[in-house]
Design goal:
The protein is mostly helical. A two-stranded antiparallel sheet has the order 1-2. A two-stranded antiparallel sheet has the order 3-4. Helix 2 runs antiparallel to helix 4 and helix 3 packs across helix 4. It is elongated and about 85 Å long.
């Protein structure tokens, strides 16, 4: 005759804790740091690249819409403003160039932290230009800060070239 003993609260916790530990181990095996850092870099690069690619008609040929946006549509929402962008043609060219160069560097993992810093600064200026877009801007800022803090990871040229940015 078998005697069943009551399940103690501690036994239940170990059971739930054991399942939780196993699930966490599986999740950590899938989300390796190098893969996570690469995906984070790509996630931050894509919206800026897509915006930048739409500003160009050819090599170093900025389209008229980009200049028009910075000369008549976009404004800086600062106290006492909004204010127009100074030198809209120059600003449009600089922004269009940065939106191609910085995401490219991020994808390659080259000068990664500097590229992420550049995109963080751009995000702050975009927030001043389009204040209602704060939910997505907050996401971009979080991704840029994460890349700046934890670096490019192993899947990067920074790592391959001997940098300690892991």
């Amino acid at each position: 005759m078998s005697v069943e003993r009551p399940v103690a609260a501690g036994d239940r916790r170990r059971g739930v804790g054991g399942v939780t530990a196993r699930v966490n181990a599986v999740v950590q095996a899938i989300a390796q740091p190098s893969l996570t850092q690469f995906v984070l870099r790509c996630g931050l690069a894509v919206p800026f690249w897509r915006s930048g690619i739409n500003k160009w008609d050819g090599f170093l040929q900025l389209n008229d819409v980009a200049v028009l946006l910075f000369s008549s549509e976009f404004q800086l929402h600062l106290p006492g403003g909004p204010y127009p962008f100074p030198a809209p043609g120059v600003v449009a060219f600089a922004v269009g160039s940065a939106e191609i160069l910085l995401p490219s560097l991020l994808i390659l993992g080259l000068a990664t932290r500097l590229a992420a810093l550049g995109l963080l600064v751009m995000t702050l200026v975009i927030q001043l230009t389009v204040p209602d877009g704060w939910p997505i801007h907050l996401t971009w800022a979080a991704m840029a800060l994460a890349v700046m803090r934890w670096g490019p990871g192993r899947l990067s040229l920074d790592r391959w070239l001997g940098g300690r940015s892991v």
